[in-house]
Design goal:
The chain is of the alpha+beta class and 204 residues long. 19% of the residues are buried. Helices cover 17% and strands 33% of the residues. The chain has one domain. The N and C termini lie far apart (88 Å). A 5-stranded antiparallel β-sheet has the order 1-2-9-4-7, with no helix packed on it. The chain is built from 2 helices and 10 strands.
Length: 204
């Protein structure tokens, strides 16, 4: 009976040892395994928005006019160029006066402004400052006649809404026939600010 008891005890120990070994293998499986990794990169470049006016004969807005009387017209050419690499949503014009007078504050009898575009550069004639312009291409209305002073005036039909494109504009100011003696000897210096808004956001 003593031998049987000993034999039984050995089997139990052996079983316990096998279970411990199995547990060890299971533990190794928990902390081991195949691994891998990879990476990628993406370059992002920002666009440029650049609207510029011309110089010299391409920007006659800097040429002053003097001695205007009712019925006179003042014509000035200006070129707008989209020198950026992005299209634009809109281009607006804001005009201000400094110094100011009834010439720019009287919306009815003061200076009136109209802007036309030409598909090619305007042909300039006359002696400075009395310029006149004709279009050998196609003309388009950019801004209908209105009082000279205005804020964020919408300009229509512009080619320069598209990147790298150019607009050839003629700004015409007129003194209405209705301007009376109270307009004599007045002085207004008009400033023209063309403001561009970037295109709408999208997926890139």
């Amino acid at each position: 009976m003593g031998l049987n008891l000993k034999s039984t005890s050995s089997k139990v120990l052996a079983s316990a040892a096998l279970l411990a070994a199995a547990a060890g293998v299971a533990g190794m499986g928990t902390y081991g395994g195949f691994t891998t990794s990879t990476s990628a990169s993406a370059a992002v470049n920002s666009g440029t928005v650049n609207l510029a006016v011309g110089s010299g004969a391409s920007n006659r807005l800097s040429v002053a006019a003097a001695g205007a009387v009712p019925g006179d017209s003042i014509q000035r050419a200006v070129t707008l160029n989209n020198g950026g690499d992005q299209n634009l949503a809109s281009i607006t014009l804001t005009t201000t006066a400094s110094p100011s007078s009834k010439l720019d504050t009287d919306a009815v009898n003061g200076l009136q402004m109209k802007i036309d575009g030409c598909s090619v550069p305007w042909t300039e004639a006359g002696t400075s400052p009395s310029f006149t312009y004709t279009c050998s291409g196609t003309t388009s209305a950019v801004l209908a006649s209105r009082a000279v002073t205005g804020s964020s005036l919408a300009l229509t039909g512009l080619a320069s809404l598209t990147a790298t494109k150019t607009d050839y504009l003629r700004v015409a100011l007129t003194v209405p026939q209705t301007a009376d003696n109270t307009f004599q000897g007045l002085n207004s210096t008009m400033g023209f600010s063309f403001d561009a808004i970037q295109r709408g956001a999208g997926n890139k």
